[in-house]
Amino acid sequence: MAMQPNRRQFLALAALLAARPARAAGRLAVIDWALLETTLALGVVPAAAAELKQYARIVSEPIMPQSVIDLGLRGNPNLELLSNLTPDLIVISNFYDYRRASFERIAEVLSLPVYLTGEPCLPILRHSTLALGQRIGRPEQAERLVTALDAAIADLRLARRPDGRPAMAINLGDRRHVRLFGGDTLFGGVLSAAGYRNAVADTRYSMTAPVGLEALAREAEAELFVIGPLPPGGGDALAGNALWQALPQVAAGRVHLLPALDHFGGVATATRFAKLVVGGAAAR
């Protein structure tokens, strides 16, 4: 089995791609969701992408045009359909490198990193955004996306003035369990970059397995940013949940309910998250 490239190798590749002359986009097929949202944010509509119905439920911005053809599961896309579409370029992330040989039999493949275990993801996403923009002929748009993220984080730092205060980005699994986003995740990375102390341990670029709600009480002074979707019943169910209402953060009004966001999103999702945190939400 081939060894997985490390962060330094991935970033070197992204920097090399970003330094090359820009090329026209051509017909694109995009497998990874972070790179799919980035492609759309760059103003390019791919010919095809994967798991579009689920994508539309989670990622509301940028809007997915109806012309994009659904290739099926990200981990097992329909290769016959993909081949029939005759793409000029297939865009994947490091998550799908294990299928690269199959894709290369159909078209040129561009593989870019999005998340690496134990590594802050924002520098990786910035590099990959610039590299993708350069490859598909949208370098100026890519620069604007990265600049917009940096501006949103700066606005968050100014508006909230976290100054090292603890914070947690979480997702509620059900009435009794919660998932926590660590420092190598998208939401944890934005909070840390804005000046919060992420009160969650490392989580392998995703989030923890569900833990009991009572775990949140261990960081009683933390602000809680709840990433949607909420469990059935939404905010009303939380209002009637005795375990939730007993949390010190709830009693102090330091809980902010946010809409659904892609846990493995790209620069556009990171920017939206930062803006949502600045805007705040109803405390519960």
UniProtKB/TrEMBL annotation:
Annotated ranges, domain Fe/B12 periplasmic-binding: 27-284
PROSITE patterns, per database record: FE_B12_PBP, TAT
Top-rank taxon, per record: Bacteria
InterPro entries cross-referenced by the UniProt entry: ABC_transptr_periplasmic_BD (IPR002491), Bact_iron-sidero_bind (IPR051313), TAT_signal (IPR006311)
Annotated Gene Ontology cellular component terms: outer membrane-bounded periplasmic space
Subcellular localization(s) per the UniProt record: Cell envelope
Family statement drawn from the similarity comment of this UniProt entry: Belongs to the bacterial solute-binding protein 8 family.
Name of the molecule in the record: Amino acid ABC transporter substrate-binding protein
The species this protein was found in: Pleomorphomonas diazotrophica
